């Protein structure tokens, strides 16, 4: 038709639509049924054909190219080591890691005839979108912390370091085809030598040039950052290296250019050898289209006139079509998209949230054949990226995403339950995702349960909370999500209360109103055929022998397989060089053994790839290998002396702290020597006076392996903590003296996150089931009183649920079941304490906040004890109740020598009731980290202050900067939220202390870095009197020194804390104000390209610094 209409051309460029289903190295079976004939015709007229081969490979099980790359494990990885998926022209796509030479070699083979039919010598190649482009990310490329493999070493190079060369390597891989491709039996077959002798130069083009690109072929400027300033500089640079060919797609200009800029861009486009007007391109700015056409027509009347005629005719016939959920094609109507977004904006701040500009941004990502689900995903991500302007954007993003999910799932819990129970895998084998018992219960009560589900509550989640659910928590069939968030909550409720429909509905109602949540393993597994709902497992090394060590390792593997976080006490394993009687040899000590545990943690991930395996190893500081133990997580040193994937904790006796304080000597022992001959009990098995008595006797008897200054070891501990954040610091004597399980024996360790303190033995693996209460939900929005009565009611329901989980749980090892049935411990935690303070306008350091902190935990402990006592009245006390402190009338605050002061609860009456009926649970309260579930519910983590007022939230689509919603609403209410304020907040790393805002707001929105850690410790001790397990207490220090850290540790020890420190977080004092942005420059940026670049550069640097200071060891193992 080009010839028929007299349209001049030299080359035909075939975009992705020429392929079969948008799979590269294929031809469309009907549109290009015989490519060879087309190539012959073009060659006869001395014209050429160019086909596109982009780096995004459609994720498709039947696609040979995808399967081959995946089988070789050659795709780019996420920061967690998983396969990275992004969204580009084919839809969900994976990206070959072209930084790896082996990948480039494999890629070149795909150009051979057996992969790519008709790939003859005269077929040219177009390497496009190799920035690489990812449409569903904030930067339109893959996340900066994606991992590449640049050599034979393991993945470890971040994308931020190779972004500019990724496209170059993609192009290099494509250029290898000219050496490798051969067309056996083809009349157009030609060898490399024949091509050279005939002076045939193969042609290929690329979209992401860097140094050396001119050696491989032509380049073009259609980059995702196609700005005028960049293009001009690029033209100059490319001219200086005598680049043979340069071309411009002038419709790609991005941003909001002035008319003069658009005209200048088009001048440049027409002045280079190749002009590519692409009006169908999704990044075309339609407002510039008429202007650009007029100018182009004046200079190129024939080509441009015909192009416009063809374009308009094509738009009249087809336009841009979307694929609906039922498979129908429909012409896109931009007004319909705006109306859909408008319908979801109810109740949002219309001064900030305007559907029209949102729609304009969304349509920039359109392509012909985009699905309606992809449009919703793109719209949601667009809104999420704008959430730093106003929190309502995050709400709108979630509403769009939830609405999309609702359109793709059924609105019946009972129908969903049946589908989960009847699920068959891809081979047609039964693979039920819901147990028969739970499904039968649901179907028997279908009408009542379906009526109880309130789907509109799905719209209460913010975007990042919903994406967290979508990524890991909602059940899938054949990789398709079939659960809605409300379905998941009802599944959990039914999984816990199958047989009692009223209790199930009560639990559902409280959880769906986000008043409390069960822990991540419960959300994952409740109601499933193997409902492993426990979060925490604690083990003691069974025995200091090969059998004992490997039996314990096997237990760890079985538990980790089922998504349990693990704490292991290893102080009974003999030290390096100790005599082994059975073999007449000597021990290699802890380090080689721990490396075995390290590899097991890496190999046995949790929940089938949902989470990494996580083990915390606990050692007492008298152990002779303690110095080696402290080196295990350090970045430097011999690899065989490191085990960096484990976590480490010190189980510290009072005697050691006293020796450090007195600058006395400290003797190290091998546990093989450190025991009482009469009883067989070692130092590990004793605490308090008994421990001290044995320790002194062993010193006197000369049983020590080595004597050091206590402060020398203390300094090494400080050094390790400042470098790695660990070892955790827990106090053995406090943990045992204040435990309601101390009648069972000495407690040897804590768990992965330091909040669980339970008895373990060789035949008992301690277990804990967790839930957390959303404290922010009980804070008054109108200046009233905190709702302690509702907190009390919700706590009782959560306690009853956790007790029920013990009976309905699947236990990965028998020793765990034995322990849990005997002692029945549970762990209630919290999230959103800092949010409650902000809602009530109480600065974290204020006296009212301290009082509220104490009153909240008194209420939780009272309600939990009362609920457990009521259970004991019905079912009897737990098996090992007799002899416990509670059986003697001592509750947790008695063990702290504290008297409740609020007068709100009748402790005397409750104690009398406990004396009569006992308790059903040995332990009740354990504030844990809530990394995942706090994000789901939209709260700050646990009881901690806000670590930042700015967060970088990550999804599979990319990174999004969000602002503390309380601060943002406050600034908006006081009319202080401007673009200048946003830039300054980012520049100050989220700190408000340097901003021009009222001093009351500065106090209210202090971050943890600006709050005295002594106050954090004091508040931990205040609530500690009502915490019968322990608490995951992080310490944050600016400009940490050994003196400051030592002082902090001693303060926590003297307060009587069980957990003195979970992680140590440190940063330099200058970090918060290191990056500054000149606001005047930001203002001028409205009229200068360089101003934009300067502001963007400073902002990006600040955000990178913000990310660098994030918690790298965020725990999801205990997240409740």
TrEMBL record:
Top-rank taxon: Eukaryota
One CC-aspect GO term: ribonucleoside-diphosphate reductase complex
An annotated Gene Ontology molecular function: ribonucleoside-diphosphate reductase activity, thioredoxin disulfide as acceptor
Example GO biological process: deoxyribonucleotide biosynthetic process
Keywords: Allosteric enzyme, ATP-binding, Deoxyribonucleotide synthesis, Nucleotide-binding, Oxidoreductase
Top enzyme category: oxidoreductase
Family: Belongs to the glycosyl hydrolase 31 family.
Free-text function comment from the UniProt entry: Provides the precursors necessary for DNA synthesis. Catalyzes the biosynthesis of deoxyribonucleotides from the corresponding ribonucleotides.
Protein name: Ribonucleoside-diphosphate reductase
Source taxonomy: Eukaryota, Sar, Alveolata, Dinophyceae, Suessiales
């Amino acid at each position: 038709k080009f010839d028929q209409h007299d349209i001049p051309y030299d080359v035909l460029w075939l975009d992705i639509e020429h392929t079969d289903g948008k799979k590269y190295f294929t031809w469309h079976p009907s549109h290009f049924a015989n490519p060879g004939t087309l190539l012959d015709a073009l060659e006869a007229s001395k014209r050429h054909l160019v086909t596109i081969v982009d780096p995004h490979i459609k994720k498709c099980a039947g696609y040979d190219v995808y399967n081959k790359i995946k089988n070789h494990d050659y795709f780019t990885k996420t920061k967690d080591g998983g396969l990275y998926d992004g969204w580009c022209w084919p839809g969900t796509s994976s990206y070959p890691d072209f930084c790896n030479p082996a990948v480039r070699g494999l890629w070149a083979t795909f150009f051979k005839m057996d992969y790519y039919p008709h790939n003859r010598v005269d077929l040219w190649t177009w390497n496009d979108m190799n920035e690489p482009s990812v449409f569903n990310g904030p930067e339109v490329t893959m996340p900066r912390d994606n991992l590449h493999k640049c050599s034979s070493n393991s993945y470890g190079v971040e994308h931020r370091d190779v972004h500019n060369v990724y496209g170059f390597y993609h192009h290099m891989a494509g250029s290898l085809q000219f050496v490798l491709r051969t067309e056996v039996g083809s009349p157009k077959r030609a060898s490399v030598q024949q091509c050279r002798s005939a002076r045939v130069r193969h042609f290929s083009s690329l979209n992401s040039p860097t140094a050396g690109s001119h050696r491989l072929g032509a380049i073009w400027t259609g980059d995702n950052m196609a700005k005028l300033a960049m293009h001009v500089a690029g033209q100059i640079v490319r001219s200086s290296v005598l680049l043979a060919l340069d071309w411009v797609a002038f419709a790609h200009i991005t941003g909001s250019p002035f008319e003069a800029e658009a005209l200048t861009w088009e001048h440049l486009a027409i002045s280079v050898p190749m002009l590519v007007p692409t009006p169908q391109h999704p990044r075309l700015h339609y407002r510039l289209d008429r202007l650009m056409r007029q100018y182009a027509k004046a200079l190129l009347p024939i080509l441009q006139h015909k192009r416009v005629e063809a374009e308009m005719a094509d738009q009249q016939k087809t336009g841009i079509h979307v694929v609906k959920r039922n498979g129908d094609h429909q012409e896109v109507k931009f007004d319909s998209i705006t109306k859909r977004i408008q319908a979801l904006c109810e109740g949002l701040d219309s001064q900030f949230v305007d559907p029209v500009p949102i729609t304009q941004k969304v349509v920039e990502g359109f392509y012909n054949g985009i699905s309606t689900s992809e449009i919703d995903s793109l719209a949601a991500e667009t809104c999420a990226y704008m959430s730093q302007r106003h929190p309502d954007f995050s709400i709108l993003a979630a509403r769009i995403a939830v609405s999309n999910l609702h359109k793709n799932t059924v609105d019946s819990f009972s129908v969903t339950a049946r589908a989960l129970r009847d699920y068959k895998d891809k081979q047609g084998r039964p693979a039920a995702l819901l147990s028969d018992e739970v499904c039968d219960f649901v179907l028997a009560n279908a009408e009542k349960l379906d009526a109880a589900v309130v789907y509109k509550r799905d719209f209460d989640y913010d975007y990042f909370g919903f994406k967290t659910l979508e990524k890991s928590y909602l059940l899938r069939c054949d990789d398709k999500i079939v659960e809605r968030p409300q379905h998941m909550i009802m599944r959990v409720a039914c999984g816990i209360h199958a047989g009692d429909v009223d209790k199930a509905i009560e639990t559902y109602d409280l959880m769906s109103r986000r008043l409390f949540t069960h822990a991540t393993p419960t959300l994952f597994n409740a109601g499933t055929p193997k409902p492993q709902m426990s979060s925490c497992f604690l083990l003691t090394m069974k025995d200091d022998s090969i059998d004992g060590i490997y039996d314990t390792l096997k237990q760890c593997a079985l538990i980790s397989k089922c998504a349990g976080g693990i704490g292991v006490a290893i102080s009974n394993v003999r030290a390096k060089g100790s005599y082994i009687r059975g073999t007449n040899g000597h021990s290699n000590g802890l380090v080689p053994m721990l490396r075995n545990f390290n590899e097991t943690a890496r190999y046995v991930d949790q929940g089938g790839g949902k989470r990494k395996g996580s083990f915390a190893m606990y050692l007492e500081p008298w152990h002779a290998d303690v110095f080696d133990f402290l080196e295990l997580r350090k970045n430097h040193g011999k690899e065989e002396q490191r085990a960096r994937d484990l976590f480490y904790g010190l189980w510290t006796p009072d005697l050691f702290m006293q020796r450090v304080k007195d600058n006395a000597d400290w003797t190290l022992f091998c546990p093989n020597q450190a025991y009482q001959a009469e009883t067989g009990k070692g130092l590990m098995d004793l605490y308090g006076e008994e421990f001290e008595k044995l320790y002194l006797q062993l010193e006197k008897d000369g049983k020590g392996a080595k004597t050091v200054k206590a402060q020398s070891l203390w300094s090494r501990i400080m050094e390790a903590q400042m470098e790695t954040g660990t070892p955790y610091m827990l106090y053995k004597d406090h943990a045992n003296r204040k435990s309601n399980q101390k009648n069972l024996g000495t407690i040897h360790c804590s768990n992965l996150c330091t909040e669980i303190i339970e008895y373990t033995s060789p035949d008992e693996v301690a277990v804990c089931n967790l839930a957390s209460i959303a404290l922010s939900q009980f804070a008054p929005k109108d200046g009233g009183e905190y709702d302690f009565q509702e907190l009390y009611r919700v706590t009782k329901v959560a306690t009853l649920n956790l007790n029920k989980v013990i009976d309905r749980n699947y236990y990965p090892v028998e020793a765990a079941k034995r322990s849990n049935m005997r002692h029945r411990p549970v762990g209630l935690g919290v999230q959103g304490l800092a949010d409650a303070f902000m809602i009530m306008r109480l600065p974290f350091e204020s006296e009212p906040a301290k009082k509220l902190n104490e009153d909240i935990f008194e209420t939780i402990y009272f309600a939990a004890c009362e609920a457990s006592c009521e259970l004991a009245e019905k079912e009897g006390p737990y098996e090992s109740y007799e002899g416990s402190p509670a059986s003697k009338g001592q509750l947790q605050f008695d063990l702290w020598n504290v008297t409740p002061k609020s007068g709100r609860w009748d402790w005397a009456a409750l104690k009398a009731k406990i004396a009569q009926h006992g308790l059903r649970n040995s332990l009740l309260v354990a504030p844990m980290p809530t990394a995942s579930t706090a994000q789901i519910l939209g709260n700050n983590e646990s009881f901690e202050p806000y670590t930042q007022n700015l967060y970088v939230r990550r999804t599979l689509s990319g990174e999004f900067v969000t602002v503390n919603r309380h601060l943002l609403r406050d600034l908006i209410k006081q009319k202080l939220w401007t673009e200048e304020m946003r830039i300054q907040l980012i520049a100050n790393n989220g700190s408000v202390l340097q901003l021009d805002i009222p001093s009351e707001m500065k106090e209210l929105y202090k971050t943890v870095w600006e709050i005295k850690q002594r106050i954090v410790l004091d508040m931990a001790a205040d609530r500690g009197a009502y915490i019968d397990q322990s608490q995951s207490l992080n310490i944050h220090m600016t400009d940490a020194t050994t003196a400051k850290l030592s002082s902090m540790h001693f303060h926590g020890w003297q307060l009587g804390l069980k957990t003195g420190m979970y992680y140590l977080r440190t940063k330099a004092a200058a970090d918060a104000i290191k990056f500054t942005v000149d606001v005047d420059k930001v203002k001028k940026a409205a009229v200068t390209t360089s101003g934009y670049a300067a502001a963007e550069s400073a902002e990006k640097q600040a955000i990178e610094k913000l990310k660098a200071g994030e918690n790298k060891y965020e725990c999801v193992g205990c997240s409740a």
